[in-house]
Amino acid sequence: MADIVESREVSALIAELSTVVGREEPYGHYARLREIGAVVRADDGTLIVTRWTECAAVARDHRLGKMPVELLAHAGLADWAEHPALYGYFTSLLGINPPDHTRLRRLVSSSFTARRVQALRPATERMIDDLIDVMAGRSSSDFVEAFAFPLPCNVISELLGIPAADRAQFQHLVSDWSAVLDDITPEVLSKANPAAKAVREYLAALATERRRQPREDLMSALVGHEEAGDRLTEDELLTMAGLLFAAGFETTTNLLSNGLVALLEHPEQRPALFADPAAAVQELLRYDSPVQNIDRTALEATTIAGVTFQPGDRIVAYTGSANRDPRRFSEPDRLDLKRADNASLAFGGGMHYCLGAPMARLEAEIAFPRLFERLPGLRLAPGAARRDSLTIRGYDALPVQN
Ligand code: HEM
């Protein structure tokens, strides 16, 4: 049996990852944690894996699931269902286990199809050009505000059927809501709850409208969809739409920002981006992943890397570290858009594998070549503000000049 490593160094490394400096540059800390051991224990008892093999196993092993709601009370969250921000998360696909997960994922997958995403290509191209037109008319912009937020927000809104005039309000709402992914404190909840409630109320009104008058959008498909006599209840529908909506731009915004920074810091890679945008985006996702970790709870005793997780153990897989593990990738800290074997854990793995991966890829594959084609002088300007989160890696502001 292998040991779970607990030490002062482990505690210090994990604590530093939550500081401004650690969030700016977590990769050195990850490297040290990977060396220290396959499984380490944080001061709060969480078990952390940072190497590729163990992170992939944690993501894929069905004996490790999402924290069953009965255990939330032990985690100090007995009143979770009364907090809209937690209710919308813990009852969504991201928070549940089979058989509920299997049923809900089947119901949404048959409406949110690859064909539906591909059908968005022309609209996505138009939206990208419109946003670049605005950037081209100014000498400097905040890339997050001008491009990285509105693009995915517009694309997921287009898919769901949210009218253009209503979209801008959602950036702060979803950002406040998703803060619960990092830390559930009374202060975080005081902003997250009203935000989650506002998003849900908006989607409820949209669902009512589409029930009355269906259109071609995903909301109409979700309200009308029935499979083998089964359909989403109103509560499930609103939770699902809320998850798709929030997940639809919260993460993709950061793929666009992190990817832009990586591409601007490596101008020699520009030809490879134009030659194969799909491979380039795959490498950008590996190199600086927008989602840096995923969490699981042991549902039964499970042995990984010679360590047995006991039922109820909370496990966090640092996928952002796994994607830089030299055991899996040669020269992992080097951005190489032509890397042959670059499939990463950026979208997770197993039954919770990201449902929106084709959509995020579509946006980034069109966006990056188009940005550099139309704004060849694009460069970073001072004043970048990193997002205050270890789970979601990205920027709140990213000033650029043309
Ligand atoms: C670059 C962009 C994105 C990244 C890096 C990303 C990452 C992830 C990751 C790591 C997971 C797995 C979480 C876990 O295992 O606990 C996940 C799940 C999910 N993602 Fe994404 N995502 C992205 C974009 C999107 C988009 C555009 C959508 C929706 C339109 C979306 C919808 C979802 C949903 C619904 C799940 C839950 C699936 C389930 O639990 O069965 N994501 N995503």
Automatic annotation (TrEMBL):
<dbReference type="InterPro" id="IPR001128">
    <property type="entry name" value="Cyt_P450"/>
</dbReference>
<keyword id="KW-0503">Monooxygenase</keyword>
<dbReference type="Pfam" id="PF00067">
    <property type="entry name" value="p450"/>
</dbReference>
<dbReference type="InterPro" id="IPR036396">
    <property type="entry name" value="Cyt_P450_sf"/>
</dbReference>
<keyword id="KW-0408">Iron</keyword>
<keyword id="KW-0479">Metal-binding</keyword>
<keyword id="KW-0349">Heme</keyword>
<dbReference type="InterPro" id="IPR002397">
    <property type="entry name" value="Cyt_P450_B"/>
</dbReference>
<dbReference type="InterPro" id="IPR017972">
    <property type="entry name" value="Cyt_P450_CS"/>
</dbReference>
<keyword id="KW-0560">Oxidoreductase</keyword>
<protein>
    <submittedName>
        <fullName>Cytochrome P450</fullName>
    </submittedName>
</protein>
<comment type="similarity">
    <text>Belongs to the cytochrome P450 family.</text>
</comment>
